[in-house]
Design brief:
There is one protein chain. The protein is mainly α and about 200 residues long. It has two domains: about 50 residues, Arc Repressor Mutant, subunit A; about 140 residues, Orthogonal Bundle (Tetracycline Repressor, domain 2). Helix content is about 75%, strand content about 0%.
Length: about 200
Amino acid sequence: MSKQQKRTSTTIKRIKNAGLRLFAQLGYHATSIDEIVEEAGYTKGAFYGHFKGKEELFLAIMDERMAMHQTEIMKSFQVHEEDGLNAIARQLEYVIQQAQDDSWASIYFEFLANTRRNPEVQKKLALMYSNWREFVTGFFQSLQEKGLVQINIDIQLLATTTIALFDGFNIQSYVDPNVDPSKQIQIISHLLGVEQTSAN
């Protein structure tokens, strides 16, 4: 990687990190591009050199998070594969915890509310969800081939349902703190034909 490529990578990373911090602190709508570049230590020119606007920055952050989750899930499962069912529960708990720890769920739902009439954003979100469903489908297929789960319904439908459960529990826990999003592990485990639901 050349020096210019390293500088570009560093700039993008710092802008993303600054955006995520401010989205969590102030909310997506309330955060301005001026505040993001000030937090990151750059000018507006640097921002617009890499992102068309705040929506594109958010989508870049979301895409990066999805890729990170997929990598961590596969890496961890490969290491703990001999742990069987506990390894499956561990991966589910990881994704759920990540969404709760950094206020991502609340930021994401606010983003959806603010961009619901933007066809370009909706198209990109649809592609991201398609990629996420493809990953979950492949992961479930791998589990079934290894004999770790017993799936009796269409795997693609199961992947879609699992993601919908994840989003639904996060919405409910966002508006009602008494809802425990980790309970979805029990439902997903049941759909996978898994009786053991705790990684402890």
